[in-house]
Design goal:
The chain has helices at about 1-20, 25-50, 60-85. The chain has about 90 residues and is mainly alpha-helical. The radius of gyration is 13 Å and the shape is globular. About 75% of the residues lie in helices and about 0% in strands.
Amino acid sequence: MNFIIWLIVGAIVGWVATSLMGQRDGLLMNIVIGIVGAFVAGLVLTPLLGIGTINQNNFSLPALMVSLLGAVVLMAVVNVFSRRGAFR
């Protein structure tokens, strides 16, 4: 059951991140962006802020915000590299 909630919350975080960045992605990509963004936030932001992410089974509002920030940072980094042609 926790896995399903994790996927749903990851999809919501990914959807919000893509909406903030002005992109349109599908459901699967939103899930990937949300979960990988939460992973990035866990590596970078959790030690700085002391707040867990959704990948650490913390589904509180601060954890959702940190996961969302990680997803936005992930998308910004991917956009920088994709504009240079690194991923083409």
